[in-house]
Each structure stands twice: as C-alpha cells, then as structure tokens.
Amino acid sequence: MSESAAGDRDRLLEHFGRRYANGEFLFREGDTSREVFMLQEGRVRVLKRVRNVERSLQILKPGDLFGEGALLPSTPRTASAVALSDVLVLALDPDTFGQLLQGSSQVALRLVQQLVRRLRDAEEQVENMLIRDPLSRVVNVLLRLAAESGRSAGAANITVSPLELSARSGLDVDTVKRSVISLREGQYIRIVDERVAIDDLDALRRLFSLLGMKEQLRG
Questions:
Q1: What is the pLDDT of residue 104?
Q2: pTM of whole model > 0.85?
Q3: Which one of 76, 107, 113, 170 has the fewest beta carbons within 10 angstroms of its own beta carbon?
Q4: Which of 17, 30, 62, 24 shows the shortest CA–CA distance to 43?
Q5: Which mean pLDDT values do the consecutive 10-residue runs of the chain (219 residues) have?
C-alpha cells in the first residue's frame, strides 16, 4: 500500500472506523439499512434464518464490501452479519460511500468485483440446490474452489473452513463435517492444519461423476 493510500485509509478509519468483538452482531435481519460496510480486519459471517434454522450465506474477509442494501432508501436488512473474530470495519452512510466511489477507482472496481462474485455465488447455490446428495454438493464446492485457485489438474491445497463450505454448499455444518470425514476416509482429501489437501483432482472429479450417476439411478 502506497503512503498516500495508507494516509487515506487512516483518515477514513478515524472518522468512520468501527470495531466489533468476536460474536457481536454488526446488524440483524430486519434492521433498517443505514450503512455500507467495508471489512478491514477479521472475518464476518453473513447468515439468514430459514424456518428457525440459521444458514450461513457468506464468510467475509478483509477487503469485502457488504450491507450494500443501505444504498436503497429505507431497505430492511435481508440477512444478519456477525463477527467471527474481533473485526474492524468502515461504516459508511450512502452519501459518504457515493463520494468515495466517485473519488476512488479502486473502490469502484472492488464493488464491481463484489457484485460479480455475488452473481457467481448465486449461480453456484442454485446449482447445488439441484444436487440432492450432500456429499456431491461438498465435492462440487471443493472442485470449484480448486478451479478458483488456478488448479484444474494434479493436486490442490485449499484454505476453507466448515462454515465456508456450509455457506457455499447450502448445507448445515454438521452435514459438511460428515461429508469431509467420508472424503478423508476414502483418501480423496487430507486435512493439513486448516487446509484441505487434494492430491488428485481427477480422482475427485471422477467421484463427482459417479455420485451423479448414482443419484440419477435413484431417480
């Protein structure tokens, strides 16, 4: 980060910086949207309650924008956001965020990238909803993550938490953990520290095809 960019960030944090402790809600579903958030430090979980069950929608990392519903007047929050660690955010009202967009091509580009990522994630979630087998959903997400890391063959190492797998597969965390154990026992993956090591992507891809055929036979 250049000295000028660091100075701009420090000035923004001085006026709009806000800290939240691990487990604290930044906003809750149904609240009136008043601010757009830019995550600076830590991780945030975006979740939605469906039939009294909390479902993870996203796990946000530094650099992510969220809460952009505040750009539409009097819009209620459609999901909740809770800190997964101690976090630091920029909390910007719509006018200030608009001025920042006009004055920073970097922020504008980040917003476009965020919207493209949301569309991609929505497509992935629709695809996973059409897959009934939980294990197939988890394998599908792992293959996508490998592709996003630039690996389509050979081996891949992916940093992903059970919460992130839950959000991207549309499954609860316990089901995700059972699927990961099954894949590990089948020697399709290894867990190394907090990373998922895939030694043979082609083998995992063949498993995904086989599971798909089994699902078709079951009707």
A1: 79
A2: no
A3: 76
A4: 62
A5: 60 90 95 92 89 80 89 88 95 89 80 79 75 90 87 83 85 90 93 87 92 76
Q: CA distances (Å), 59 to each of 53, 85, 91, 133, in order?
A: 17, 12, 18, 23
Torsions phi, psi for 94 (to 5 deg): -55, -40
- The number of residues making up the chain comes to 219
> Helix/strand/coil (H, E, C) string of the chain?
CCHHHHHHHHHHHHHHEEEECCCCEEECCCCECCCEEEEEECCEEEEEEECCEEEEEEEECCCCEECHHHHCCCCECCCEEEECCCEEEEEECHHHHHHHHHHCHHHHHHHHHHHHHHHHHHHHHHHHHCCCCHHHHHHHHHHHHHHHCCCCCCCEEEECCHHHHHHHHCCCHHHHHHHHHHHHHCCCCEEECCEEEECCHHHHHHHHHHHHHHHHHHC
Tokens 């939240």, residue located: 20
CB 83 within 8 A of CB 44: yes
Q: How far is CA 102 from CA 13, 68, 95, 107, in A?
A: 18, 16, 11, 9
| Per-residue pLDDT, 101 | 82
pLDDT on residue 113: 82
What does the alpha-carbon distance between residue 43 and residue 214 come to, in Å, rounded to a whole number? 38
